[in-house]
């Protein structure tokens, strides 16, 4: 029996080493050699996604599943995933543009990775594809096996490179010449990866995820405490920051995903292996009840942004992720509310939620969830409904980043009889890059911005005006000032005045003419900004330079003329025509 077992181990090691070598060499040919010989990027994408997905699955499946079934199952999933990602790539004229978008590659990765535990469990006679204990075990064992395998592969390369250095000391460069041969490093990496996958399977009784999972459980009370503090502090400190951007939604989703993962780890594969410590059990239960709230807040944050600016592929991806997060939260929360047996309910919910996630990834790569088409049509509809004007359209993104759907929307915009839109389209057509297009838009809009700012910005002393040509200097500085001043003039001081004022005075007597110092409200404080020189705003008895003051009433006092011009108390060292000193 032992001899038979040893023979099986050797056979598996040889098989996986050969599979790894084939994976490495084949991927080298597809990713390095083929692009140099063919301009058909879609062919490269198709073959690379097919081969990469197949070998990634096969390396993990051999061992838990006998070779023939592993090949068939891995080939089926890889073919489906490759077919969908290739289909989705036709949204763009070039597959490289599809890959640059990023979200399609993320969906493909989920579509390859998530079915593996289901395939292993379904292929084993004593288990089934819905058997959660088996799914949990195979999922985490695969993660650990790959981590160990990549760590071993790194060690192998460390030994190879060190050996090359040692032999180089005596003039032997055999290793260097071998690894310089095209494809050899890829093959060596594949062999090391395959061999370590085989050995890690043989030692699965020793190399188990239990240690990692038990350590992860200890983080659950921390996540619960942070979530509770957040939910208490959010309404007290105001919700505006939460619902103004995708980054806040992403943070909430990341927290919810971490919480769901830690709950699953704490509950383990069944009740006999689940955490028994009361603090962990109650942490899992309470966190599960908080998850729907986090998911709902993430979804709300995304939709606020969508209602403000419309759909874009990243916002659609964020909305999809938020919907999945909310689904996990609702499933976990309802499981706890069902009372007795809530741990088992969460485990079974995880099976169906994983299947839902696989289906969502497949839909994302299908025409039903064509992010570019949905986004382009939504932006076009917003313009035609009068919700945004020509300046609110990102023509460069439509024409260059959203593939064929964006180009079609751009063609429809050319049929509109809007002079402003025609002017923007002319700038778009003349630009050779996004930067050039944005610079053209800035230059085209700047005169109107300057005129609008002159009408909006209060100037002191009474009767003073902003000097002509003030905004003719550095274009980047001018654009920055215009954006900042226009935005902050919309704020309101304690006295009810606009949150901006300009003071014209001879702040630098050694320079000809007057200078302009701007004071604007920013997060309840006042900021000083200048065209020339370095602005500072500080207490009279504090010689540390600041550009902020915490008293928002400063603008009201400037508007009332309650200020005076005074010299800076400064001594300089004069040395043969040069001066030196310390500036406040």
UniProtKB/TrEMBL annotation:
Pfam families, alphabetized: DUF4153
Cited InterPro entries: DUF4153
Transmembrane segments: 12-31, 43-63, 70-93, 105-123, 143-163, 183-203, 215-236, 242-267, 279-304, 316-337, 349-369
Source superkingdom: Bacteria
Record bears the keyword Membrane: yes
Keyword vocabulary terms for this entry: Membrane, Transmembrane, Transmembrane helix
Lyase in keyword set: no
Protein known as: DUF4153 domain-containing protein
